[in-house]
From TrEMBL:
Pfam families: FHA (PF00498), Zn_Ribbon_1 (PF13240). Gene3D superfamilies: 2.60.200.20. This is FHA domain-containing protein. It comes from the Bacteria. Residues 85-142 form the FHA domain. Coiled coil: none annotated.
Amino acid sequence: MKSCPQCGSTNLSNTLFCDACGTPLRDDIVVEPTRLYEDTVNGGSVDDIHRRAPPTERTTLVSGQWALIILPQRHIVRLPEIPSIILGRGHHHKDPFIDLEPYGAHVAGVSRRHARLTRKGMGVYIEDLNSTNGTYVNRVRIPAHTPTPVQPGDIIKLGRMKILIQAE
């Protein structure tokens, strides 16, 4: 058994990430920043998502800018101002996509096409894409293919990966 250095939870000895908080349990696990993949009319482009220090207090919506904060590492992934984006792992899709694999998505049970975030007006909705391990908003599992509103401060879970929704 291993004890998590972040939250103190007990985990099986072969576990890579803490089941309670997602902290890497081995020193050789390096979490890299995610990349946004977006196909365009000109054949596609790849834009790096910039990492910044996490906000120290809850902010309010300003000009429609939203971000995902991957917990517990608190990596920030800004959502591009496009109507819809897929969250998952790997990139084998034509749709705009955020690859969560660098944050341990595979080990956390995130599907390749796990969920879709959609902007409608000043709001954001999450939709589970019939994932194997489910999508949760504030600990409540949402039905597949049912857009569910999310607000700044909400915690979504893709499988066991916890993500804080934040407005910047």
